[in-house]
Amino acid sequence: MVKVENSKNIALSDSIINLDHGDPTAYEEYWRKMGDRCTVTIRGWDLMSYFSDVNNLCWFLEPELAEAIKELHGAVGNAATEDRYIVVGTGSTQLCQAAVHALSSLAGSHPVSVVAAAPFYSTYVEETTYVRSGMYKWEGDAWGFDKKGPYIELVTSPNNPDGTIRETVVNRPEDDEGKVIHDFAYYWPHYTPITRRQDHDIMLFTFSKITGHAGSRIGWALVKDKEVAKKMVEYIIVNSIGVSKESQIRAAKILKVLKENCESESDNFFEYGREIMRNRWEKLREVVKESDVFALPKYPEAYCNFFGKTLESYPAFAWLGTKEETDLVSDLRRQKVMSRAGERCGSDKKHVRVSMLSREDVFNVFLERLANMKAH
Amino acid sequence: MVKVENSKNIALSDSIINLDHGDPTAYEEYWRKMGDRCTVTIRGWDLMSYFSDVNNLCWFLEPELAEAIKELHGAVGNAATEDRYIVVGTGSTQLCQAAVHALSSLAGSHPVSVVAAAPFYSTYVEETTYVRSGMYKWEGDAWGFDKKGPYIELVTSPNNPDGTIRETVVNRPEDDEGKVIHDFAYYWPHYTPITRRQDHDIMLFTFSKITGHAGSRIGWALVKDKEVAKKMVEYIIVNSIGVSKESQIRAAKILKVLKENCESESDNFFEYGREIMRNRWEKLREVVKESDVFALPKYPEAYCNFFGKTLESYPAFAWLGTKEETDLVSDLRRQKVMSRAGERCGSDKKHVRVSMLSREDVFNVFLERLANMKAH
């Protein structure tokens, strides 16, 4: 039997633990260790205007955030930032909708089909359906999608929920009607080897999944085409008249420290984050191995340009499967573990998505409960 | 000839001034005077989670912001907060869309008509049309609206753009299909006498127009019905997974100081704001009086419960009219003054909306240019 550390938190021992959301509280301790270096102080009269830079196409983007974003991508080598517009959003959630909106409004006919290869991020379904727009229509799984007319494919790589490396699956080189939005929320060295510098037309990133600062609601898009960037900015203006300046200033400061620490021996955040993830994945794989019931995907190793060595993947979510004919999300719920149903991700009842980014004590309680689950 | 102070800012003398947006930078000096009292310090490991209070229906609302909102409304006496849900939003812009979405999703048939009495806030048109939702449809001017079926009336009081006190104008007591969203962005004592404690079903407020902190993107809704509040929260979750915590914490601090100062002889913000607005309105009325061309609305005096005396209204926007047959927005543009066209507000070419909330030097340049405009 694998040794699972008992939770020191008595209060947790009987409570429901929520691993449905990917609330990224795992990295709190790192930021504590950084002490004052990431502290921001905002005076009463700072940041009052709607405007950050009237000469920028994205006039609500704080220049120091733009700078920090470019420097971080430069240091990590995961995405090209030259000759691109940076659009800031209230999380990449708002940006994904802004991008779908922008591409749709530039399309020749409506509704534009929106697809993603299953299993996909379940929130894409909600994001593209909740306002019942006449401009675009969620068409589900991109595998086997063959509808005529303009379409948008959402490509998440590493994929949420299953951690795999993804490319587009709808390929129609013969026409100009297909557009792709690349969601690179998890394309950072603590989760996956950085194998290339991405340079796609629309690339989405989110502060929350890099550093763990989900509460700030900051995301950004790197956009090649000026018209698309302009339409995205228009969307965000009508949707929320820009993005919190306080969050932007704080994200800028934290990303700057993150970048500086990329060159540090002892304080490299990605090294720290990778260790946490490796440790959790090893423990989880042990529990799964000891059980007769569960299964996890395997990921190929790859050479990481950032770390300069061959490394494994440690995704932010575990895509947990069961070998039995059962409803896994309900089985876990009975053990007081909330997870996201595979069906919501375009998959089946035998899979769930489980966050790997909780606080350590919560993660350990999850392992205990999983280890105690018996075959039916 | 009325004496108009010359701008001390040489750089401004020839530049375009933008009074189209209501960028509320007029109050910066007050917050400077408050010194450290409104300074917030946020450490690197603070506010990382998506969640603010898992036991609250609006789980992304910071408890200290909720507290500050209730205390401020209590001190000002402009709105009832008991037995209501507080929903926080990325500005009242996001909340208005959340409310339209919520009411529409609870309606018996679709699309739900959305109307506002002209002249109306031009952004309502964009907010209710840009996603081309099948759930609701902008039907324009509420005066004369007689379409069958469910509808939502947006009531802004004091009104944006024209500063008048508003009630609903579509009255259909015979059925249950009409819903009202009250936008009270400007129902604060520096702009208008507080004549009653409002207690409508859905009331929207925005941080930006009270204190001038537009960059924070914080608004809130006071909502009576639990189902409506729940649907609004759902909208905000899909739209942006909550609202910046940094902005919420800062808004809480500033609103708390605002409330404390309500009892101060020397530092009362509303007294300060009212003085700025009175001064600007008097100067503007002088310029308009001296011209043969322009006109401004007149507002009745009323007893203000907050100040305990009879007072005038000093709206945040001037609804400037011309007596000539001309396109006023273009005439002003030729003088390098950007304003919002009356036509965008459901009115005519002879009216424009001009922000009264700019920095002092910009306002003075506006007066100079207006004073120099001759009859055609």
Structure description:
The structure is a homodimer of 376-residue chains. Chain A is built from ten helices and 16 strands. Chain A has 376 residues and is an alpha/beta fold. In chain A, the strands form four sheets. In chain A, strands 3-9-8-7-6-4-5 form a seven-stranded mixed sheet. In chain A, α4 (122-129) links the parallel β4 and β5 (136-141). The longest helix of chain A has 22 residues, at 269-290. The radius of gyration of chain A is 21 Å and the shape is globular. At the A-B interface, α1, β2, α3, α4 and α6 of A face α1, β2, α3, α4 and α6 of B. β2 of chain A pairs antiparallel with β2 (40-42) of chain B, so a sheet runs across the interface. Chains A, B: Belongs to the alliinase family. Chains A, B: It catalyses: L-tryptophan + 2-oxoglutarate = indole-3-pyruvate + L-glutamate; L-tryptophan + pyruvate = indole-3-pyruvate + L-alanine.
